[in-house]
Amino acid sequence: MKKVTLSLLFVIIVFALQLNIAFAQPQQENKMGKTSDVLLPTPPMGWNSWNHFHRNINEKLIMGEADAMVASGMKDAGYEYVNLDDCWMALQRDKDGNLQSDPERFPHGIKYLSDYVHKKGLKLGVYSSAGTKTCAGWPASLDHEQADAKMFAKWGVDYLKYDNCNNEGRPAISRYTKMKNALDASGRQIVFSICEWGSNNPWQWAPTLGGLWRTTGDISDNWNSMIQILDEQVGLNTFASKGHWNDPDMLEVGNGGMTNTEYVTHFSLWCILAAPLITGNDLRNMSDNTHDILTNKEVIAIDQDPAAKEGYKLTSNGDREVWVKPLADGSWAVLLLNRGDQGCFMTMKIQDLDIKKAGTYTVRNLWSHKEEQRADGLVRADVAPHGVQMFKVTAQN
Fold first, then answer.
1. pTM of the prediction?
2. Among 308, 301, 184, 302, which residue's Cα sits nearest to residue 246?
């Protein structure tokens, strides 16, 4: 009897331990999810050095871009991250094996830069890769995750863009998980931007690790690149949620490779996709057109809507597409896209939206800032070639 009792007790203890292990992981995931929700309840907004300056960055430049973000009204429009991309680090780690900034281009170090940015009410981001070297060949963080995360935290970094170059063919999920765990243990809340290029369907696993994840390869400053990336977003809207965002790559607005009409289209599409709004132009030398695009608060409000819903393609007819996005107040954003080389007149039925039925709808154009009352249940407009018309549709009581 005594042997039976001891055996039963042993079974109970083992079963209890198994239950504890089984429930431990979901509790950790919930904690991680809540952290991301706090950091990114809406998609991040900021600036990144790569699209315009590539390798040619230095301390004075970054400080100047931070100054311009404030002076231009970009900060007031919601932009807050000032992000260094590749090539900020020295070609060698220091004697203790730690990353260090390039001593000539960043002579005062990253902590000095983060202090400068923070005093302006902004946040600082840096770049590394889940490989042995960055894409440009500088030291990266594979197998140095703990040390690098601690250094980022010590410097006061707020955002890490983590690339995928020189990864030695090692599994993506394990590489990004290591850095996520290192960031969690660093003692500082740091936005984790997973730049895995969409190679391993990150939308299926990255939401448990990062606040945003790249869904594509790099964008280029031309219409074909931008529109191809748009096509790759179809069907991904269900993976985005509060604190976790699909990232179709950074904005090219103002870099000169597209027309003003195409830049309006680019910005409008990224906003209806609830994409991160990370600009890549020189903020110190913006044209009025570029400034007006990037600071259109009505369009930005669609991107930053607290419902945390990503927009999606509703209909497609050749070069004519309708994209829509449900909003927290019960209204909808509607975007009419003309991908063709000729202007066209486009129409969509409001009844195709999951919107409150009403006799009259307010249809507000988010670029002209004009609105009209529609009793015919239609949204319609002339749309320029490679252009959009973007509206907010609200049911009237």
1. 0.91
2. 308
